[in-house]
Amino acid sequence: MTSYLLGIDNGGTVTKVVLFDTAGNQIFLSSQVLDTQYSNPGWTERDMVGVWQTTVTAIREAIVGAGIDPKDILAIGNASHGNGIYLLDKQGKPLRPAILSLDTRATELLDRWQTDGLTDKLWERTYQQLWTGQPPVLLAWLKAHEPDNYKNIGAALLSKDYIKYRLTGQYSTDFTDMSATSLFNLPHKIYDDDILRLLGIPEMRSALAKPIASHEIAGKVTTEAANITGLLAGTPVVGGMFDVSASALGAGVIHAGQVCIIAGTWSINEVVTDSLVDDRHIFMNSIYTDTSYLVIEASATSATNLEWFVTQFCDAEKAEAKRRGISVYEVCNELVSQLPPGSTNILFHPFLYGSNVQPTARAGFYGIAGWHNKKHMLRAIYEGVVYGHMSHLERLRQAGIPIETARLTGGGARSAVWSQMFADAINIPCELVNGEEIGAKGAALCAGIAMGVYRDYADAVAQTVRVTKRYEPHADATPLYAERFKEHQFLTSVMKEAWNRLSSLERQ
To answer: Do 286 and 378 have their domain in common?
Structure first.
């Protein structure tokens, strides 16, 4: 009898449910697109019932599509996008639409806290920067702007923890996810009432779920959840992981000197360390395993920029892709590959949904002339996303963290031209590993540890992860990218005042 592990990954745009065998091979993938609501400028929300329904559909499709008996699923691990907030009322029902991590409604509140020095005070406890899409910022905004909803909050959850609740009827979170929210005291690995008091939301302590280890059993699938998902009632569900942590694990990044680069909805750049890094220039520290941390540099500046461009401007490429039976992104890859490194001086700031520069930063193309076409703009987007990642990697290096090799994951890793661009630009080898759904795999490995399939994280990686492709930097291309990255950073610096001025027009 073959045994399986089920990994669920509720991402920024898609819910994925993946069956793996215990050797880490991907057996079947089911995915469902998640609808996002933009009801006001800067607001990014999602219907919570819809999130659960897409997860239910994906679970059923995975079981039926793989043709397995659900009793052969040993356990379930889930991961999801971090931060944002999923609120239940005091009866355990969705209170309002979920607010996602890309949301910027609380920009003015965060600006005030930064001016008042609150963010510096929090660093001493949280070891991370505070930003608009984090739960404490959103909860403080709700307290001020939606007081009736705020008073009726029964549980303040993260995305994966909401799904666990629907599966098991139990509230829980895990250390990797909660430690990335600025609600957690990292040195002591506990909730800190002083943090909540400083943020002005002390009453939220009772709404926060208990954190457990990622490989600890959080509960079991209820009869109700089993009836609608096709799962077997009683199947264990583990604590799960913040998706960036799950991706690091699924990519086999467990040793110092390895960086996991996730080119997806967010630009994630994370390195394993044995201790917290007290450098206030970096984005965040978070808990990883029982004995290690991830130092993370991140912003909402990655492959989502390409998705937006394709959605808005690439109807011809979509038609060609349909005619050829391939993805529209393969067509885009072909177009970009026709322009070698150094062939265009167009620069693109990948700030459509936020930035690591300042809350008011916005995307833009610079240097476009009449002879440029869509091909040049696509290449500028690819390069701009890489430069966004490079700015994060530079901060990690400046913090004294060694980076020797990179594991590349996310949608960007599926593009050979983009993967080579990363290797050339950051000037270190970029490795790809077996499997495509790396985040779901990391979550499934946690489930395997809980069931004794693997002894620990290192054993799980040893049994299931192998390098399938290695992109070496091209010596002739690296200086060209370095030159353009320098100009990209210069342009970022001179645009800061302009972005602030444009933002003031937006608020009029």
So the answer is: no
